[in-house]
Amino acid sequence: MMEPILLDQQLCFSIYQTHKVFNHFYSKALEPFHLTYSQYIVMLVLWEQGQLSVKELGLCVGLDSGTLTPLLKRLEREGWIIRKRSKMDERRLEVILTDKAKAQRTEVYEHVGSCIDQIGLEFEQYQKIKAEVEELQEHLKAATAATKKE
Questions:
Q1: Which residues belong to any copy of the HTH marR-type domain (predicted)?
Q2: How many CB atoms lie within 10 A of CB 35?
Q3: CA triplet 53, 104, 26: central angle to 5 degrees?
């Protein structure tokens, strides 16, 4: 019989705890901009890719429309984005950056970037951890896909 893996030895629990700490870290870093971590992720995608449909944005950030819609409504209320129906296809809801969002992009990047320095990792170490987490993610996706086929 296989011995159970105790909670403090579980990789998933370490990642879960790290995720919680990251969220807290980012909530403090983003506080001056009145952005949550999830809103920040959405803003990063929009700053990088420009105008997207809600569906495209959801695919980029891994959120379904039920989670994404309230988040977008808050961003719109705060003046970061505008949601507008496409003239080409009324079913398509476009998400567009406001002038405020465009103007504050650099300030947000610089502020959050300087916070990353506080973590105390060398660039190479940061890149290595990121690559390992991405590799783990791919293994998990493959295992999940294999389980669905059974």
A1: 8-145
A2: 23
A3: 85
Per-residue pLDDT tens over the stretch 53-73:
999 999 999 999 899 999 999
Instruction: Say what the pTM is.
Output: 0.85
DSSP E strand boundaries for the chain:
52-53, 81-85, 93-97
Contact residues for 47 (Cβ-Cβ < 8 A; gap 6+): 97, 101, 105
- The separation between the first and the last C-alpha atoms of the chain, rounded to the nearest angstrom, is 24
Burial of 8 (0-12, 13-18, 19+ CB in 10 A): exposed
Cβ burial 38-76 (10 Å sphere, 16+ → b, else e):
bbbbbbbbbbeeeebebeebbebeebeeeebeebbebbe
Instruction: Please tell me whether residues 149 and 93 are part of one structural domain.
Output: no
Instruction: Look at residues 72, 83, 12 and name the one whose alpha carbon lies nearest to residue 38.
Output: 72
Owning domain of residue 149: 121-150
Beta-strand pair 93-97/81-85:
antiparallel
